[in-house]
């Protein structure tokens, strides 16, 4: 029994989980908000809270609208448009969390006081200290930056000890495993190797921010229930992106 308790001890006290819009979408269409997918996220986050970990979340909005793919629209304006669906996903996640009995707060980089609180770093930290799940929406509130970069920035601002990147694959590969059957998955890889090879699981700005500040990234399959807890308790799932051994 003591051994089981030891295995369940979390490696990190405060983490930031990066979710793409795909995490909220039905698996068959990849578009819209699925109650099943959102409830899966809420259950996993509830397990994290029970571990005593303080989780914050940055959500994307690609399941509804991707600003960078908008045709014929000014890039800045399209990016602002792309921030709005992230708020929709954040509110959906908040609703699912509240239904599991977990208190949460949505903080947005663009002020919209009727639905969410404005992003203030110290306020976010205070919510986490009170045991609330904090959901960050609207990216950084400025164009030309992805929600990956927002995740790295927010993680550093709130003092997170790791950045968890939930994806549709079980780690970082040297090629797309859906297209290349023999693609190699890395258990561990250094930031510089990711940047040199141009692996596309996260944008270069986000990886550089993590590298400069020694923030580890764990890339794992989010659709497998329990994987967030497994990542936090040190089970060897996914890929650890790190700075190497000193």
Q: What is the CATH domain class?
A: Alpha Beta
**Spatial order of the strands in the main sheet?**
4-3-5-2-1-6-10-11-9
Which class do the helix and strand fractions yield? alpha/beta
Shape: globular
Q: If classified by CATH, what would the architecture be?
A: 3-Layer(aba) Sandwich
Percent of sequence in beta strands: 15-25%
Total DSSP E strands: 11
Mean pLDDT figure:
93
Q: What is the chain-wise order of helices and strands? A: HEHEHEEHEHEEEEHHEHE
> What is the number of independent domains?
1
**Sequence stretches where pLDDT stays below 50 over 5 or more residues:** 1-6
Number of helices: 8
| CA-based gyration radius | 17 Å
Task: Describe this protein with a few key phrases.
246 residues; alpha/beta; Carbamate kinase; nine-stranded mixed beta sheet; two-stranded antiparallel ribbon; 8 helices; disordered N terminus
Structure described in brief:
With 246 residues, the protein is of the alpha/beta class. The protein has helices spanning 2-7, 35-50, 75-99, 121-129, 147-158, 191-197, 204-213, 227-232, and strands spanning 14-19, 54-59, 104-108, 117-118, 133-137, 162-167, 172-173, 185-186, 188-190, 217-221, 239-242.
Task: Provide structural commentary.
The protein has eight helices and eleven strands. The strands form two sheets. Strands 4-3-5-2-1-6-10-11-9 form a nine-stranded mixed β-sheet, sandwiched between helices. The longest helix has 25 residues. It is globular. The protein starts with a helix and ends with a strand. The N terminus is likely disordered.
